[in-house]
């Protein structure tokens, strides 16, 4: 890991018992506030995929922040993958299981079939949201170029559940 990335990682704060007791929340806002750390992180997110994607898809909500910067840095388009009910036009939907219920993500079909899409989110925990995002991209007819995640929480089974040989994580716990 480069010195720039080590410093960037040190800016991710751990907030215990948020939003629920027993959860250790990773607050990335100090990293986002630091221009050099943010740039190094975005570059690291997309480095293994450079030249292999046409669009970056970001999962709501913090994935939007990373994906928009990555799309800009790579000179490609941006595709928001939203929580259900947030898009103004008809959209494709994909359901996934949460620890406490079922959720859905959705996206518009704004790109031609076969478009190569890099999926980005902030945290890989159990893998449900990212798997749903990937499956949604495939349902829309897009080619999944890979998955990039800022922070992987090891021990929660997300990597195995996602089962993505093109998974790239910048930081791990």
UniProtKB/TrEMBL annotation:
Source organism (scientific name): Leucobacter ruminantium
Q: Where is the Phosphoribosyltransferase domain?
A: 49-152
Tell me one Pfam family matched here.
Pribosyltran
Its keywords, alphabetically, are: Cytoplasm, Glycosyltransferase, Purine salvage, Transferase
Top-rank taxon of the source lineage equals Bacteria
List its EC numbers: 2.4.2.7
Where it sits in the cell: the answer is: Cytoplasm
Its family remark reads: Belongs to the purine/pyrimidine phosphoribosyltransferase family.
Q: Which reaction does it catalyse?
A: AMP + diphosphate = 5-phospho-alpha-D-ribose 1-diphosphate + adenine
Mind giving the lineage of the organism this protein is from?
A: Bacteria, Bacillati, Actinomycetota, Actinomycetes, Micrococcales
What job does this protein perform? Catalyzes a salvage reaction resulting in the formation of AMP, that is energically less costly than de novo synthesis.
Q: Which GO terms describe its molecular function?
A: adenine binding; adenine phosphoribosyltransferase activity; AMP binding
Report quaternary structure and partners: Homodimer.
Annotated metabolic or biological route of this protein = Purine metabolism; AMP biosynthesis via salvage pathway; AMP from adenine: step 1/1
What coarse category fits the chief subcellular location reported for this protein? cytoplasm
Protein name, UniProt field: Adenine phosphoribosyltransferase
Query: What CDD domains is this protein classified in?
Result: PRTases_typeI
Q: Name one GO cellular component term.
A: cytoplasm
- GO biological process terms held by the UniProt record: adenine salvage; AMP salvage; purine ribonucleoside salvage
Looking up PANTHER family in the UniProt record yields:
ADENINE PHOSPHORIBOSYLTRANSFERASE
